[in-house]
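Example record

The entry below shows one chain as it appears in the dataset: sequence first, then structure tokens.
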Amino acid sequence: MKTIGYAAQAANAPLAPFDFERRELRANDVAMEVLYCGVCHSDLHQARNDWGWSQYPMVPGHEIVGRVIAVGGDVQRYRIGDHVAVGCMVDSCQSCDQCRKGLEQFCKKANVQTYNDTDRFSCEPAARTHGGYSKHLVVREEFAVRVPDGLDLSKAAPLLCAGITTYSPLRKWNVGPGSRVGVVGIGGLGHMAVKLAAALGADVTAISRTRDKEADALALGADRLLASSDAEAMAQAVNGFDLIIDTVPVEHDITPYLPLLDVDATLVLVGQVGPLPPSTTVPLLLGRRAVAGSCIGGIAETQEMLDFCAKAGVLPDVEMIRIDQINAAFERMERSDVRYRFVIDMASLPAPAAA
């Protein structure tokens, strides 16, 4: 399938139009027209090779909502015209113990990422995975999830990464009525963590360096804001949380947050990929506290999350942009100048050139 997207050709190059081909449909594939694609902070990291494993050319985008335009002969779940969504992965081995548990994100043989990765069955150029900053996508049937009726297509895309990344630890640590949840960082991930924790019935505290975002945090559903720069307020909050979700996407010190955990409570890192400054085990030992990490969710859990958001009326706060505004959006995202997620209207991408 001939298509077009916006690609980075090198770590220091702006994204620009890029003609390429998607692989032919296999029997268990669906092809979709991309309608909307969210802009994740990891798209910026990958495009600029901040993590050291980027391949070029690269079409980013793993928060994808679209319409099915073709199906393989063995496809049972979807028909042409269905609205579907794709997140951070497009395949896995489907046979290891983790895949059989519905934890494809932890596939023992490695899942296939939606972009900057290679298809499991082919090394041809058309089998290189490219993401949702494009007109079309081909994906294995099992890795497309259904967009529930009533969920706003134009706002749903960030749920496929920011939504599931924060929903998964909330479910893993059994958050519900009576749970005391802290959310560090009120950005793309953090605002979804606040919304989802509140919708699950938790008592939610937004944790930010200053009180500047207090009104925003309360509007998102938080019960209060805790300023981490306020030593007295931090001291009063000691032992105050059953779960803290740390959404900060850059290197930062987690030490100040550890005493806020109650006995047997956990701080879960979902934002930063890479090193953290040295910390201390003292608050961990003295409170049997834990530090954990979490990475998106499995396909079944992603569908559960979408269904929950549709039922509870939970959607990200988004700013719609055209595809030709993506480089400016990256620059604004670096300055934290977005509340809280960019979404690309892919109707702004021209059709691919004729063969």
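Notes for this example: Residues 208 and 227 are 5 Å apart (CA to CA). The chain has a mean pLDDT of 95.
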